[in-house]
């Protein structure tokens, strides 16, 4: 597979941008670890790493590779778990808030 110069320059850019985003996500997780969204932020950082690896591999190897199918599946699974956790946390916070208001009105 032949690559153009722009294509080859995209590989280090993808690695650097993904690494920076992953580091910022890990730092955010360190700050918000004890908050209700700490687990979701941890999954987000793992998802960012998986997507960075996937997109870098997409630039390096051919698109019809079984390794890329596995990486794509893993990244999509992490994103689905992340969204599910956010929905569960949102419902839990809403339930706690409505329960707290009922206690104050009694």
Question: Could you provide a short overview of the structure?
Answer:
It contains 3 helices and no strands. With 106 residues, it is mainly α.
Distance between the termini: 71 Å
Continuous helix count = 3
Fraction of residues in H or I helices? over 70%
Low-confidence stretches: 102-106
Strand content: under 5%
Layout of strands and helices, then pairs:
Layout: H1 5-31, H2 38-60, H3 66-105
Describe the structure.
The chain is mainly alpha-helical and 106 residues long. The chain has one domain (1-103). Helix content is 85%, strand content 0%. The longest helix is centred in the last third of the chain and has 40 residues, at 66-105. The termini are far apart. Mean pLDDT is 76; it is low at 102-106. Keywords: Membrane, Transmembrane, Transmembrane helix.
Which key features would you list for this structure?
elongated; 0% strand; single chain; disordered C terminus
């Amino acid at each position: 597979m032949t690559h153009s110069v722009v294509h080859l320059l995209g590989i280090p850019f993808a690695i650097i941008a993904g690494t920076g985003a992953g580091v910022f996500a890990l730092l955010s997780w360190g700050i918000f670890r004890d908050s209700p969204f700490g687990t979701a932020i941890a999954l987000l950082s793992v998802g960012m790493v998986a997507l960075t690896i996937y997109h870098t591999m997409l630039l390096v190897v051919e698109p019809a590779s079984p390794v890329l199918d596995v990486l794509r599946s893993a990244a999509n699974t992490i994103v689905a778990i992340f969204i599910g956790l956010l929905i569960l946390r949102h419902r839990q916070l809403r339930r706690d808030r409505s329960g707290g208001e009922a206690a104050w009105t009694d």
